[in-house]
């Protein structure tokens, strides 16, 4: 029985964002930068809202508070 192998090319950041969407994540908090550019590009194409902060401490504080309130 012959079978067909289909290879789908996807970046790891796209797969990660799809997993977050499947888990029901609707917001992420973080600091944009060169190190996470692929992740930010994948987030731009998704339904997840990105909340930009000035430093990591603020992002953690905002995410923890948002998590407790929702």
In short:
With 70 residues, the protein is mostly helical.
Overall residue-averaged pLDDT value: 92
Question: How can the largest sheet be summarized?
Answer: 2 strands, parallel
Helix content, binned percent? 40-55%
The helix count comes to 3
**Separation, N- and C-terminal Cα atoms:** 52 Å
Query: Could you tell me the strand content as a percent range?
Result: 5-15%
Given the C-alpha coordinates, what overall shape results?
A: elongated
**Unreliable stretches covering 5 or more consecutive residues:** none
- Please, how many domains? 1
* H-E string: HEHEH
Give the helix/strand class.
mainly alpha
Query: Radius of gyration from the CA trace?
Result: 16 Å
The number of strands is 2
What strand line-up does the widest sheet have?
1-2
How does this model look, in words?
Helix 1 (12-22) crosses helix 2 (37-44). The termini are far apart. The model has no long low-confidence stretch (mean pLDDT 92). The chain has a two-stranded parallel sheet with strand order 1-2. It has one domain (12-69). It is mainly α and 70 residues long. The protein has helices at residues 12-22, 37-44, 56-69; strands spanning 27-30, 49-52.
Any key phrases for this structure?
70 residues; mainly alpha; two-stranded parallel sheet; 3 helices; elongated
Lay out the secondary structure.
Layout: H1 12-22, E1 27-30, H2 37-44, E2 49-52, H3 56-69
Parallel strand pairs: 1-2
């Amino acid at each position: 029985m012959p079978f067909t192998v289909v290879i789908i090319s996807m970046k790891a950041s796209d797969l990660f964002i799809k997993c977050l969407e499947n888990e029901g994540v609707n917001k992420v908090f973080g600091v944009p930068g060169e190190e996470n550019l692929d992740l930010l590009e994948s987030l731009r194409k998704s339904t997840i809202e990105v909340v930009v902060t000035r430093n990591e401490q603020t992002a953690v504080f905002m995410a923890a508070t948002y998590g407790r309130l929702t």
